[in-house]
Amino acid sequence: MTPEAGARAALQRGDLHGAAAAARALADSDPQDPAGYFLLGIAAAEAGQIAKAVPLIEAAVERGPRAEYLAHLARLLILLRRDGEAAEAARQAMALPPGDALTCDTIGCVLARLGDHEASMVPFAGAVAAEPDNLDYRYNLAAASGFTGRVEEARGHYERILAADPGNARAHYALAILSRQTHEAHHVPRLEAALAAAARPDDALRIRYALAKELEDLGQAAAAFGHLSLANAAHKRAIRYDFAQDAAIFDAIEATFGGAGLADPGPGYQGADDAPIFVVGMPRTGTTLVDRILSSHADVGSAGELQAMPLAVKQLAGRHLAGTPSRLVIDPATVAASAAIDPRLVGEAYMARAAHQRPQGTARFVDKLPANFLYIGHILRAFPKASVVCLRRHPMDTVWSNYKNLFASLSAYYGYSYDLMDTARYYLRFDRLMALWERLYPGRVLQLSYEGLVADQEGQTRRLLGHCGLGWDAACLAFHENRAAVATPSAAQVRRKLNSDAVGRWKSQGEGMAEVAAFFRAEGIAID
């Protein structure tokens, strides 16, 4: 067995010490052989030493670029939030002869993480072609197919996964949300059987969400609510969420920006006239719809849900944090420290992070990360010319839609969504924060009603375009014909013409939403 084969075999069996020793011997015996450096880097990465692994793999690439090396380099750069460099490494990997199935899948995962789902189709398909029985590779191809509008292809891949693994919870959930279920075509009996056989809490969570989605589609509201209640209560316990965590963040933002001195935007970022358009709001309130409307305009492209603003603020606030910086992207200490940041630097850091994901060929781009409503103060100070649109949906529909949709289950952004009353309390704080932004920056944020858009599509679309400084483009009314990828739970809806199906959906829940209704009335939130 060659030293390289020995190092790879050690990695496969989890012997990191043996792998590192074999790789070090290989690198020492021939310093110009890239394999030793690559395998040393992989061993370091497997040990959790990402920062140490990157220069080792870079050394391998310098000695002999291969798709495998560049793919793993891109993967590690993503983990370090160095997205621009990751994008470049992935592009270089794509330009080289295709590697093994794992290399293809790794490239696809990097591209998907960067929001380029269309480009990810090629390497994902290559991985499946090389190893058709690998269900993880096929799932990734199925997800990319769904995001890019290839619904029947996605459905076929998910069904092949379930034929091989009937309990695959990810595939069950993905199939449920892929399209609207009907009495003639649904998966309820199969889902009930899968739930009965589910051994892991995560599997039961996803299957119950899938059942709730399909049962609601079929008009069985009470049964859907029952599954959601069980799933969400269990997951809230598992993640140990406490609303006080989010309340402290809102308190910090209000304390930081509510005082004197921060409302004045100052000169901000002066690097370009192509100011971003930020579409914000609570999730499931129409942000994807508005992103599609705007990106149907000839002068606008969608960059998707960028983490560029949260990461820019976190990076710069870290310089002003006392003690050990938190690992969380947003927390009270980070918010307080962010008051000392020069807005110009926020703009520069944001644009640098956004550069690799913003579409080419359009003068303007949309960043539709809903949670950017927490950063409106920084946005408007950094970008005096930026357009900000905040979606507002009926409070009860907002709460219900957040509660019934499975977001990234480990993301701190959505911890509130596993409890109806936590979601109601979160909405209340969101509403209060938006009132603060309006007081500080009157007229700078367009608060756009989802129900108003549904009732008067053209009138509200004209209002939206006007706020963003865009001329009229009739293509914005045909947003459903926009073929760009959609990687949110709204993927199916935004490929249909605008309709009122989702308006007032909460009313089907009756007793289940009664406590939320009483809370809103007591807090002065209009719901009638």
From TrEMBL:
Keywords in alphabetical order: Transferase
Coiled coil: none
Keyword Transferase listed: yes
Pfam families, A to Z: Sulfotransfer_3 (PF13469), TPR_16 (PF13432), TPR_19 (PF14559)
Domain of life: Bacteria
InterPro entries hit by this protein: P-loop_NTPase (IPR027417), TPR-like_helical_dom_sf (IPR011990), TPR_rpt (IPR019734), TPST-like (IPR026634)
Protein name per Swiss-Prot or TrEMBL: Sulfotransferase
Organism listed in the record: Novosphingobium clariflavum
